[in-house]
Specification:
The chain is built from 8 helices and no strands. The chain is an all-alpha fold and about 210 residues long. The protein has one domain. Helix 1 runs antiparallel to helix 2 and helix 5 packs across helix 6. The radius of gyration is 18 Å and the shape is globular.
């Protein structure tokens, strides 16, 4: 079994994760301001710009708020988990801003796979012990990922219903495909987290919530 990260390397990784998390949050806020003021500039016209402007900051800043209120005196801030929660919000807005959803046919599928996996990984590292079995990790990641994917699809259905009225079959196929991609990303994320734990990585990620 490969050894865990040595202290200097571990510190560099943690500083990088901290920087990426803060930068992603700052850029996310700036992009959301632009989306609200001019949805067309951000390629968000008729794409629930206001819904994203409200829900994404809530999602990106929920963990910091909970940490400040409940866990600040008991554990260091979980930067890696917070980054995994922030990136899906950031990448979705950036993808729209760069018009990647319309210009790259597979970008939407990748977002469902990758972002759902990140959210599932965040739940795993926040709620499971490093000694958890592979089955327990995959079970938790799949439950979290499918829940997140289902919530997104329900929100997407109501947000974009007016755009799909003439294409009901396409909506059905898109929803099923997105759920499958989300579930697959969740399983992959769980396996990667479990492997990292077994290799001695992620050893300083704090457990801020314990779910039996």
């Amino acid at each position: 079994m490969p050894s865990a990260l040595v202290a200097p390397e571990r510190d560099r990784v943690e500083r990088l994760v901290r920087f990426l998390d803060i930068a992603a949050k700052a850029i996310l806020v700036l992009m959301l301001v632009g989306v609200v003021t001019d949805p067309e500039l951000g390629n968000m016209q008729d794409k629930a710009a206001w819904w994203r402007a409200v829900t994404y900051p809530m999602l990106a800043f929920t963990l910091p708020l909970l940490w400040l209120l409940y866990w600040r005196d008991r554990s260091p801030f979980p930067w890696l988990a917070d980054l995994c929660i922030t990136v899906p919000c950031f990448s979705d807005i950036l993808g729209n801003r760069l018009d990647l959803y319309d210009r790259i046919w597979w970008f939407d599928d990748w977002m469902h796979f990758f972002n759902t996996g990140l959210l599932a990984a965040a739940v795993v590292v926040l709620t499971l012990d490093r000694a958890a079995s592979r089955v327990a990790v995959v079970e938790r990641s799949l439950a979290a990922g499918l829940t997140a994917a289902l919530v997104w699809e329900v929100a997407e259905y109501f947000a974009f219903l007016h755009r799909w009225e003439v294409l009901p079959n396409r909506l059905y196929e898109d929803t099923l495909g997105d759920l499958v991609l989300g579930a697959t990303g969740s399983v992959v994320a769980g396996l990667l987290v479990h492997r990292a734990w077994r290799r001695g990585r992620l050893e300083r990620v704090p457990l801020v919530v314990r779910v039996s």
